[in-house]
Amino acid sequence: MEFLPQERIAKLEAQVEGIKEDVAAVKQDIKELHSRITTGNREITDHIDRKIDDLAKNDEDQHATMGVKIDSLGSRIELLERWKWMIVGGAIVVGYLIGHLDFFAKFMK
Fold first, then answer.
1. What contacts 4, CB < 8 A, 6 or more positions away?
2. 0.85 exceeded by the pTM?
3. Looking at the domain assignment, is residue 47 inside a domain?
4. Domain-located, residue 1
5. Which residues span the domain enclosing 76?
6. Is residue 51 part of a domain?
């Protein structure tokens, strides 16, 4: 077995120390990257949650507005239907009277 010269051993030890420092730096970078990813994910999910809440609120507001408008429209239709039947009823009475004028003329004399 051949022994390495002292100089070569010193170089190898220096390289090993450099590699250890590089590994420590890489580990630190990985921790920082993991932290950034976690923070980014949390920010994205918070943003999505806020958007979903906003959409749900807008949906509820729109539903309430539509309900009010539908109720208003329903009452207007009901009023028109009442008028329609009053006019139809009036037309029936007028038609009956016109059809039986001679009958009523006898009573008027």
1. 12
2. no
3. yes
4. no
5. 6-108
6. yes
